[in-house]
Amino acid sequence: MPRFAKFAWGLLAYNLLVIAWGAYVRASGSGAGCGAHWPLCNGEVLPRAPGVEMLVELSHRITSGLSLLGGLALAIAAHRTYPRGSVVRRGAWTAFGLVGAEALIGAGLVLFELVAHDKSMKRGLSMALHLTNTFFLLAALTLTAFWASGGARVSLRRQGVVAWSLGLAVAFMLVLGMSGAVTALGDTLFPVHSVSEGLLQEISTGAHIFVRLRLLHPVIATLTAVVVLLAATLARLLRPTRLVRKLSLTVSLLIVAQMIAGIANVALLAPIPMQLVHLLLADSVWIALILLAASALRAPEAHALPGPSAEGGVLSY
Fold it and tell me: Is the pLDDT of residue 312 over 70?
């Protein structure tokens, strides 16, 4: 595998860890650990006698900063390695822009104090925006690594029902991700001590909208699972290459695992470790779905991009 491709896959894996740590910051209520200051922490470069919450938030800022530097390095390396007009170049620069957007959204949450125990709609909308940007970032990194590994470019022309079904699955995953982000925020802000208490809280006439989403989110998740499974099945039947078959199976297994994790998350009253597992599974489903779409919707006339071939190299299964 080309060194650039290895770096791209590694950066994707690193960003998954950064995302998980960011979820821990939210779930543990440590988002205000550095006060309403950014990029400084409580107005200091190196805080003296930091508390636990400050250390958690500060470490997240450091890991996010390294992600930004990694995105810049990826874009520069792509610019120097691949020719003008290369999809690898475009993917890498897009990923860097989205990492920058992640940093700006995080800064906005801190500066406008939409962290810790804030229950405003602004925070809910910000969380949905944050999740959407995160999904787009993961998609950009995934496609950059895929293309750098020899994957062919994508084309939507004359792809018929395969393109429509996969596009619908991607749209449903975005909606599910946004509802999940707000639901997870509700679990943090309005904890319960039993499933029955949670149900009473949800059906109460004065329930906060974050709490009401606990009832809606499982419905969205079920519909999304059905759409994703159908799209994966259609891709496997209509584009029966080895790679598409393997990715179709991977997507199907991951979405089932995600549903099981969601049920466990509700039954266990959303403990932080289960929330992180649930999030990482959602990210994994998204990445696998993007890879499936890229493999199934390759341009009919396309040849593999510079690097190992799609069937004989790293993309072979």
Answer: no
CA atoms within 13 A on the CB side of 129: 14
C-alpha 21/C-alpha 64 separation (Å) is: 10
316 has pLDDT over 70: no
| Domain end residue (candidates: 119, 152, 185) | 152
pLDDT digits (tens, 9 = 90+) for 201-260: 888 878 898 988 888 999 999 999 999 999 999 999 999 999 999 999 999 999 999 999
* CA distance to 87, 183, 245, 264, per residue, from 270 (Å): 40, 10, 34, 8
Looking at the structure, tell me whether residues 138 and 160 fall in a common domain. no
Please say whether the beta carbons of 296 and 255 come within 8 A: no
* Residue 144 lies in domain: 1-152
CB of 307 closer than 8 Å to CB of 2: yes
Boundary (domain end) residue, out of 83, 118, 152: 152
Residue 44 is given by DSSP the state: B
- Residue 55 gets the label, from left (phi > 0), alpha (psi -120 to 50) or beta, of alpha
What is the pTM (predicted TM-score) of this model?
0.91
Cα within 13 Å of Cα(238), Cβ side = 20
Please tell me the distance from the alpha carbon of residue 94 to that of residue 137, in angstroms, as a whole number.
8
Those residues whose C-beta lies under 8 Å from the C-beta of residue 85, and which sit 6 or more positions away, are none
The number of domains in the chain is: 2
280 in any annotated domain: yes
Kindly report the number of other CB atoms within 10 A of residue 176's CB atom. 25
CA–CA separation, 226 and 246 (whole Å): 19
Q: By the 8 A CB rule, do 281 and 254 touch?
A: yes
Asked whether residue 171 falls in the same domain as residue 278, the answer is yes
**34 neighbors 58 (Cβ within 8 angstroms):** yes
